Amino acid sequence: MGSVVEPRSLIRLLEELLRSEHAEAPRSSISLEGSWLGAMVAGGMGYFSAKIVGVYPGNPSRRLPLVRGVLLLFRSSDGEKVLDIPAEEPTGWRTAAASALALSKLGFGGGGVLGVIGAGVQARYHLRVLTSVFRFDEILVASRRVETGERLAREFGGRRVGRRELLKRSHVVIAATNSTDPVVEGGLLRRGAYVASVGAPRPVRELDDQVKRRAGCMLVDSDIACEESDDACGVETVTLRDYVRGVASCRWGDVYVYKSVGTPVFDLAAAIHIYERLRGSGSVSTSSRV
Length: 290
Description:
- By secondary structure, this protein is an alpha/beta fold.
- It folds into 2 domains: 7-88 and 265-281, ornithine cyclodeaminase, domain 1 (2-Layer Sandwich), CATH 3.30.1780; 91-262, NAD(P)-binding Rossmann-like Domain (Rossmann fold, 3-Layer(aba) Sandwich).
- It has 9 helices and 14 strands.
- It has helices at 7-19, 88-105, 121-133, 146-155, 163-169, 209-215, 225-228, 240-245, 264-281, and strands at residues 22-24, 28-32, 35-44, 47-55, 67-75, 81-86, 113-117, 138-142, 159-160, 172-175, 194-197, 218-220, 237-239, 256-259.
- Strand 3 (35-44) and strand 4 (47-55) form a beta hairpin.
- Mean pLDDT is 94; it is low at 285-290.
C-alpha cells in the first residue's frame, strides 16, 4: 500500500472533500469480551465508504495485529463495490494526512525541529507523511521503549531523546500514544509550537490543562471530539472542516493545537485516493479486491 499512496495528493483530496458536500453517519460500536468493534460510514464525491474495524487486546500475545478491519468503497450512483481492502494501512495514512493538513492550515510551513512522542504505528505514519511534505532541520523521538524509539528515530535520520527535552526543543510535536497520563506538558512547550495529538480516545489523555490554556482554542477533526476524548474538553474547539472552509476561526494563544479522534470522512478520502491511484495504474478494476 505504501507504494500506492502519494501523501501530497491524499492531503489535497482530503482538503477538497472537506470543502465539498459530504455526509457521515455517527460512529457506532459494540464491545464484547474485552474486544471492540466499530463501524464508520461516509459519502461524498460520488462514493460511499464503510470501515469496520476492531481492537482486540489479546491479539499481540497471539502474534496477531491489535487492530484489524476492512475498508470498502462503493459508487454512490449504482452501489457497485470498487474497493475492498484491509483497513489498517489506510487508517494510518489518512490520520497522518489530516495532521499535515491541519498543520498547514494553522500556518506551519516547515523548518525547525519535529518531535514525535510514541514509536508505534501512528508515529511511523506521521513521520512518513510529515517528512515527505515538510522540511525539518532535526527529528526527535521520545518513547517508553528505548530500542523501539531508537530504531524509529534512526529510520528517519533522527535520534531518541527524553520526552522533556523533546517538548522544550520541538517546533512541531506529534503525540501518538496510548498514555492515560498527559505526555504533552504546556509548561515545557516553546512559544509558537504546533501540537497534534492523535492518540486513542478516552481513557487516553495526551494533553495537560496548561496546553489548552496556552492555546486558548483547539482545532478538532470531529464535532463530537469532547465526547470521545478529555483532551478536547474544557476549551473552545473548531472543526477542521469549518476551519478549512473559512466559516470559523480560533483566537489562538501562543501555541497551536490539533486533536484527532478519527472521523469517517477521512476514511472516505483514503479509500477514494487509493482506488483512483490503483485504477490509474491499471492495478484494479471496478469489481476487484486488492
